[in-house]
Amino acid sequence: MVTTFLQSEIQDPYRIYETILSNNPVYWDEENKLWAIYSYKGCKAILSNSFAHIPAVNPNNKDGLNEYALMMISQFVRLSNGIKHELARESAMLLLETANKVAINNVLENLLQNAGCKSEMDWVDSICKKLPILVVLKSFGFNDTDCDLIVSKIEQLVKIMLPHKTYEQIAAINEVSKEIYIITEKHLIATSIYKPVIKTLSEKYKLEKDKIVSLCVSNLIALSIIQGYDANRGLLSNSLLQILNHGNTVSNDCSNVTYLRKSVIETLRFDPPVHNTKRVAVNDIILDDAVIKKGETIFIVLASGNRDPKQFVNPNTFDIDRTNNNEHLTFGLGGHRCPANNFSVNFATDALIYFFTRFKIIKLLDNNIEYEPTINVRLPKSILISIL
Ligand code: HEM
């Protein structure tokens, strides 16, 4: 049975999840030497287990990242548990609270104009790869020049999260890390909205201002640039796909806010952008009949938990009116639950409201969707649509 695979190579991952879930929801994968968890109950148990820690991304700097890339990664909010994580998470939450809500409509309209407002477009390339990051950057007050530069370098930078990087990827990460770190640091020092965040954190944790600034720079990059990039790109892509695929069978009005919001939430369960995450056991963990030994890796298949029939009635049906869709695992759970869950649902809903109000007829031109060659996120490479 395959547990880890490139999303580009599997047309229907849910069939695989369904088979393993019904036979072996807590499965030891001998080839990859990991425990793969497929049930809703099992995923939840591991996500909330204090002995299940987030694995280090780049232990002992095995990749040879430069000082800027290292500063980002060592202060990353996805650190394992402990005081450093608490401080990083708090700084991330404070930064998110500080961000101004920018008008998504204006940013989206600009992107539509840049795409030439033709009758056909690639939704992924023209909108999904740019809108989420631009909205976050503009919420944090970055100017247009910095936004353009960061958007043009983002694909290189997000490779920082890959567990295995090629030589070329490392060289590219090192190059753009320095540039983006310096821009972000200048921005943070010059902008008054961050002053209260810096003050609150340095008083609470009794750390010097320089340390807090560097922590905030890293988190701002992690937040605004890295964390949200793939996931929100995927949410916007997959939501449109599901709405266009189910629009004829569900009684709806696509410009109806409630309908779109429910569709985004059901997409997060049914066709999530994030499919899995990892943990390492720092102590023995007992799950069902299995003993996960200290040091062993755990692969949590969130997208399988989302299709567990013990949790969701008729899980393979896209049903926006199922009462517990919001219990999906796509934002994680417990101490590492995504702090941007509400932000992301609002973002995707608002963008789709504008798009469905702006165009009256939106059609999918090609049902054959290809996916990026990634393991933990499922991202359409392109979605060709006609708009009128
Ligand atoms: C559809 C959009 C998103 C999805 C599906 C998503 C999913 C997730 C998941 C599954 C985790 C937990 C990972 C784990 O436990 O191993 C997580 C953590 C996190 N997410 Fe998101 N995310 C999304 C958008 C964003 C955005 C837009 C931001 C920032 C603006 C963000 C910031 C974070 C941060 C900082 C963490 C780490 C929390 C911690 O370790 O305490 N996410 N996200």
SS summary, helix count = 14
Q: What percent of residues adopt helix (DSSP H or I)?
A: 40-55%
The pLDDT mean sits at: 89
Major beta sheet summary: 5 strands, mixed
Computed structural class: alpha+beta
How many beta strands in the DSSP annotation? 10
Could you please say which CATH topology applies here?
A: Cytochrome p450
CATH architecture: Orthogonal Bundle
Main-sheet strand order equals 1-2-8-5-3
Percent of residues in β-strands = 5-15%
> Which segments are poorly predicted (pLDDT under 50) over 5 or more consecutive residues?
none
User: What gyration radius follows from the Cα positions, in whole Å?
Assistant: 21 Å
Name of the CATH superfamily: Cytochrome P450
Number of domains: 1
What is the CATH level 1 assignment? Mainly Alpha
Order of helices and strands: HEEHEHHHEHHHHHHHEEEEHHEE
Ions and ligands: protoporphyrin IX containing FE
Q: What is this structure, in a nutshell?
A:
This protein has helices at 13-23, 40-47, 67-74, 83-98, 104-114, 123-128, 131-139, 144-157, 167-190, 195-205, 209-246, 257-270, 302-305, 341-358; strands at residues 26-29, 34-37, 52-53, 120-122, 277-281, 285-287, 290-292, 297-300, 362-364, 384-387. It has 388 residues and is an alpha+beta fold. It has a single domain, classed as Cytochrome p450, CATH 1.10.630.10.
